[in-house]
């Protein structure tokens, strides 16, 4: 069969990568094909996933959104969710005396989980994180302990003996950012958020609005078929700056747009035209919808906070999801500045304060919109940091603490295994670096399952899941 023969290859006819046959996506292909029958389409295939999405959208009965909050640089987890029980706090303080928060500072943020941790272990939110305490106490937020990138379950003994496969280039920013987002190091071509979009974009009125990035670009939202749509804090980014003239000529703008969207008979030119038309059409569609949700109607978000600005536009997009025909959307927002090898004691509270205030405003806004139970927000980062301080900061670590927030979250709980605190423990692989006891894959599969990904498709979204016992795929926090 010729590579360009789409008529006889159903994968190509649907606009899918033929490699999906190797990746185990047969079920996803069949489900997308079956969606045609829901709209009474007579022809066996259509030319794009977007067409399937438009056919199937009317049959979806609910709305759900996943929102990834990525903290670039490697967040210092020990000064975010801090050991409070006497023995744990003493080990924490001994390892980083110049960075340690005092117990008096931590006391107002002491967590009282519905199910107490074993052996009397306790944790407290750092003072700057305490705006989120009412959400935890109200059962709308949970913490996941000692979470990090893994290929398979790994112990300290296996790490030391090099007897298991490890994520490539541990402790490297670019590679571990990519591995968290994509299960592959830098150079990955798709992320697990985008692969979720591959499976579920057929339920949306416009497949383009499935994966939405409010912070630029990230492999997390790139799918094999799903395309991430970038949006600015103020709204969609206009093609040609949405200018009405070029060099004073409105006719020039019209001519330029015609050239950009008309195609020219060459495969690359035609594909460029498709992208340009999609950009123009989506801009008009989103701009019109957001006109019914002006920024002034979202007053809870703090000013001077770029993460809050990103979450505000996410909230605005969610508020008009029904107008846009969206049933499943995956969002990505981010904040940098967490690579604190120095000045951690002063700089870290500022950064996590931005996170806490932005996330609190976002949850409260979804509650005001009546969609809190339909939106699940979760944190992510390159890695944690060393418990041991250097001079005024901490170095690259591995396992970390993360948070999940939303009305559907089974909150007021700490999930996973609380790590032993200190150097030379069963969880420490050097300088207080934690070997993760919960993998990013388990974290992601729990979120994906809530979002609607079936067990049979989980290894398509997360290729490492086959290394885990299926009973451990769902951590149960949502």
Overview features:
478 residues; alpha/beta; Alkaline Phosphatase, subunit A; ten-stranded mixed sheet; two-stranded antiparallel ribbon; 15 helices; 14 strands; 34% helix; 14% strand
Q: Any overview of this molecule?
A:
Helices cover 34% and strands 14% of the residues. With 478 residues, it is an alpha/beta fold. The protein has a domain at 67-234 and 328-472: Alkaline Phosphatase, subunit A, CATH 3.40.720. A hairpin with a 2-residue loop joins strand 6 (228-232) and strand 7.
In short:
By secondary structure, the protein is of the alpha/beta class. The protein has 15 helices and 14 strands. The chain has a domain at about 65-235 and about 330-470: Alkaline Phosphatase, subunit A (3-Layer(aba) Sandwich).
Gap between N and C termini, in Å? 46 Å
The name CATH uses for the topology of one domain is Alkaline Phosphatase, subunit A
Distinct helical segment count? 15
Low-confidence stretches: 1-60
Sheet with the most strands, sense and barrel status:
10 strands, mixed
List the helices and strands and how they pair.
Blueprint: H1 10-13, H2 26-38, H3 49-56, E1 64-71, E2 81-83, H4 86-95, H5 103-106, E3 123-125, H6 133-137, E4 141-148, H7 156-161, H8 173-182, H9 192-200, E5 211-213, E6 228-232, E7 235-236, H10 250-262, H11 267-290, H12 306-319, E8 328-335, H13 344-369, E9 375-381, E10 385-389, E11 394-396, E12 400-405, E13 414-415, E14 438-439, H14 440-451, H15 458-461
Parallel strand pairs: 1-8, 1-9, 4-13, 4-14, 5-6, 5-8
Antiparallel strand pairs: 2-3, 4-12, 6-7, 9-12, 10-11
């Amino acid at each position: 069969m010729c590579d360009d023969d789409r008529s006889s290859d159903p994968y190509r006819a649907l606009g899918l990568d033929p490699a999906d046959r190797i990746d185990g996506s047969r079920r996803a292909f069949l489900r997308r094909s079956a969606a045609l029958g829901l709209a009474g389409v007579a022809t066996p295939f259509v030319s794009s996933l977007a067409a399937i999405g438009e056919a199937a959208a009317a049959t979806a009965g609910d709305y759900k959104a996943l929102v990834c909050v990525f903290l670039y640089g490697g967040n210092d987890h020990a000064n975010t969710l801090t050991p409070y029980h006497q023995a744990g706090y003493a080990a924490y303080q001994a390892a980083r005396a110049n960075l340690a928060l005092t117990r008096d500072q931590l006391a107002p943020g002491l967590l009282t989980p519905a199910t107490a941790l074993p052996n009397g272990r306790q944790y407290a939110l750092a003072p700057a994180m305490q705006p989120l305490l009412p959400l935890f106490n109200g059962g709308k937020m949970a913490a996941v302990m000692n979470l990090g990138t893994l290929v398979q379950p790994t112990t300290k003994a296996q790490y030391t003996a090099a007897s298991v496969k490890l994520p490539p280039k541990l402790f490297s920013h670019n590679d571990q950012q990519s591995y968290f987002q994509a299960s592959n190091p830098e150079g990955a071509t798709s992320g697990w958020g985008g692969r979720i979009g591959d499976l579920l974009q057929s339920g949306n009125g416009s497949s383009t609005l499935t994966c939405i990035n409010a912070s630029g670009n990230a492999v997390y939202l790139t799918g094999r078929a799903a395309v991430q749509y970038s949006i600015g804090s103020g709204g969609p980014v206009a093609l040609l700056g949405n200018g009405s003239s070029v060099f004073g000529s409105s006719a020039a703008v019209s001519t330029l747009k015609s050239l950009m969207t008309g195609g020219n008979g060459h495969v690359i030119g035609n594909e460029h035209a498709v992208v340009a038309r999609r950009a123009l059409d989506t801009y008009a569609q989103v701009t019109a919808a957001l006109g019914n949700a002006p920024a002034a109607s979202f007053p809870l978000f703090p000013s001077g906070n770029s993460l809050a600005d990103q979450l505000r536009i996410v909230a605005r997009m969610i508020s008009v999801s029904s107008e846009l025909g969206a049933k499943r959307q995956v969002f990505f927002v981010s904040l940098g500045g967490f690579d604190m090898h120095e000045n951690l004691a002063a700089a870290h509270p500022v950064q996590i304060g931005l996170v806490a205030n932005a996330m609190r405003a976002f949850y409260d806004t979804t509650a005001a919109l009546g969609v809190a139970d339909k939106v699940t927000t979760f944190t992510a980062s390159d890695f944690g940091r060393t418990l041991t301080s250097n001079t005024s900061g901490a170095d690259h670590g591995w396992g970390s603490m993360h948070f999940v927030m939303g009305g559907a979250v089974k909150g007021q709980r700490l999930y996973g295994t609380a790590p032993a605190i200190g150097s030379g423990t069963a969880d420490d692989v050097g300088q207080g670096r934690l070997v993760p006891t919960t993998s990013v894959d388990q974290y992601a599969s729990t979120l994906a399952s809530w979002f609607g990904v079936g067990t049979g498709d989980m290894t398509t979204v997360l290729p490492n899941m086959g290394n885990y016992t299926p009973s451990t795929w769902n951590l149960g926090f949502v």
